[in-house]
Design a protein that fits this description.
This protein is an alpha+beta fold. It has 2 helices and 10 strands; from the N terminus they run E-E-E-E-E-E-E-E-E-E-H-H. It folds into 2 domains: 105 residues, no CATH class; 77 residues. 7% of the residues are buried.
């Protein structure tokens, strides 16, 4: 029997009575820990896969001791540049002993199922009332949009009237210009008559 379980952000394949090194945990030495994130469970007959974890299944473990891992050398070099750096690292670890793998039996399972099966009628009524109020709000928004559209159309009509008034005013001003030009022609005609009279003399 084995299981795949997540411990300290990493996934491990564990079996009963197995010793395991994981990243440092905050538990004290000799304390018992339970890990609930079991993603796969194989009992020899059936393989159960979680989505993502298997509900009601856990792995029980005991903290044996806290220690440091072996030294790892971290060496960096860039050729032709005179760059060489050498560092060492020792990871903080916790040694675990897997005591058991199995399902958790809850005492009040039947009561929990009854509660899940019978939802509150009052809460469903409140949800329906909220939906109806949101529909009313949407209707009010649409009516306000129509009013805005009417105002915009009336503004356009006013703008058209003003533009037509400007066109009329332009036409009138052009008529005035034409009227001013006509007297100038008469003045020219008077000068011609004066020339003719002077030529006759």
């Amino acid at each position: 029997m084995y299981a795949i379980v997540e411990i300290a952000g990493q996934q491990f394949k564990v079996a009963k009575d197995q010793k395991l090194f994981v990243h440092r945990l905050n538990e004290k030495e000799g304390s018992n820990i339970s890990f609930d994130k079991v993603y796969l469970l194989d009992d020899g007959k059936k393989v159960t896969i979680g989505a993502p974890a298997i509900a009601g299944t856990s792995v029980q473990a005991k903290v044996i001791k806290h220690l440091k891992g072996e030294k790892v050398i971290v060496f960096k070099k860039k050729r032709r540049k005179g760059y060489r750096v050498k560092n060492g690292h020792r990871q903080y670890l916790t040694e675990l002993f897997i005591e058991s793998i199995g399902k958790i039996v809850l005492k009040n399972d039947s009561k929990a199922k009854d509660i899940e099966e019978k939802p509150n009628k009052e809460s469903s009524k409140k949800i329906v009332a909220k939906k109806e109020s949101s529909k009313k709000v949407v209707a009010k928004k649409e009516s306000s949009k129509k009013v805005v559209a009417k105002k915009e159309s009336s503004k356009k009509i006013v703008a058209k009237k003003e533009s037509s008034k400007k066109v009329v005013a332009k036409k009138e001003s052009s008529k005035k210009v034409v009227a001013k030009k006509e007297p100038a022609k008469k003045v020219v005609a008077k000068k011609d008559l004066a020339k003719k009279k002077s030529s006759k003399k």
